[in-house]
Amino acid sequence: MEKPVLNIRRWLFILPLPGMLGPLAAHAQIDPVKRELIQLGYNQPLEGHAPLSAYAFYYYNQPSFMRTNLTLRLAVAPVYVDSELGFKGLLGPNTDFAVGVAGGGFADSYYEVRQGKYLPEESFTGHGATVSSSIYHLFNPDQRIPLNGIARGSVHYATYLRDDDTASTFVLPKDMTSFNVLTGLRLGGKEPLLSPDVALELSAWYEGQFRLNSGGYGFNDDRHVESVSHLFWGRALFIYTLPELKHNFSISTTAGGSADSDRFSAYRLGGFLPLASEFPLMIPGYYYQELSASRFALVNGNYAIPFDKKKRWALNLTGTTALVDFIHGLDQPGHWNSGVGGGIGYHSTSDAWQIYLDYGYGFDAIRTHGRGAQSIGLLLQFNLERGKGGYYNPDDPTWLRGFDRLMHSFQ
Q1: For the ranges 75-79, 164-168, 222-226, which has the lowest average pLDDT?
Q2: What is the DSSP letter of 31?
Q3: Could you give the CA distance from residue 343 to residue 249 in angstroms, rounded to a whole number?
Q4: Quick one: CA torsion of 112, 117, 121, 123, rounded to 10 degrees?
C-alpha cells in the first residue's frame, strides 16, 4: 500500500530528505470540484535517528478543462509531478475514463528501519515513472451517498542508486518494471483536505503487483523481491463537526492483509502526516513508516475543541492503536503499537489557511533506552479556492444540504 499504505498508491508527496519528493496516485473517482491547495507537513523525532519526513506539494484540480467533459488533476512537487486527465461519461452516463502520467525523482527511495533503528547502510535512492488508465463507475446516481467503483491498470518503472551511506557490500535490487492492477469500491468519501468538516466512507480495495526482475539483493541475497504481491485492505471513516459547539471529531478503522509481500509492498505504519497518502497509517510518536507489516488493523480517533470566542483556535487530541504482523526480516517483539498526541490548531476567518503544531508519544516504539518515543510536527494548508463557499457551515440549521453537496461531490 504506500511504501505506506501504499507506496504503490501514494497520491501525495513525501520528502524523505531535504529537497526530495515522491508521490503515487490512488484516487477513487474523478474529482468534480475545482481545487487549488498548497499542503506542507513535517515530522521530527525528539530522539533517535531517522530520515527526515515531510511533504510539500501544490494540488490543482480543474473540471471543464478545455472541454466540459474533461477534468485535469495535477499534484506538483519540486522534483515530481503526478497528473491525470479524466473524461467524464466517456464509457456511459455514469462511467468515466482517465489516463495518468507520473514521474520524477526519489519516489522509489527505500529507507530501512528495523526494531526502531534507521539503517542508512541498507537504504538507497530510487527514481521512477508511472503511466496508468482508470475506469470510474457510479453505481447509484440517484442516492444521497454515492457508491463508486474503480478499475485501474498501470505500468511502473523504478531505477535504484546507491547513497553515500549505502554499504559497499550491499547489492541493490535490479531496476524494476511492475504491472499493477487496482480495484475498489467506495461508499461516500473524504475530500483531499487537512481537516474536512464532515465525511463518511466505507471502502474495500485490492491491488496486485506483478514485477519483472524479481530476485535477491542486499547482503548475500538475504532479502528478496517477490515476483507477485497481493494486497487487500478496507477503511471505515466518519468525520463530523457539532453545529453549535463546532467541536470536530473523527474516527477511522483501517485493516489490511497481503500475500507474498516484501519490503516494497509492505504496509508501512508510523508518524503523523495525515496527507502523506490517501490511506495514512498514522501512529503518533513513531518514525514515519517505521513499521513494515504484512497484516494490520489500526484504529484512530481525533477530537478538536475550539477554545477562543471566534472558534479559530482549537486544542487537538488524537489516539491510535494498531495490531501488526510484521513482514519477514523486519520483525520486532510484540504486535500492539499505540500512540497519543496533542497540539494546537488555528484557521483563518475564511478558512483559506490552517496551521497545526502537534506532539506525539509512541508507547511501544523501540529506542535505545527501551520502549517509548516522542516527536513533534507541523502541518500547513493553503486553500486558494476557499472563500467561494464551503461544504459545511455549522451555524446553518440546514447543514444537511452541505452534507448532500459533500456526498455528491464524489459522484
Answers
A1: 75-79
A2: -
A3: 14
A4: 20
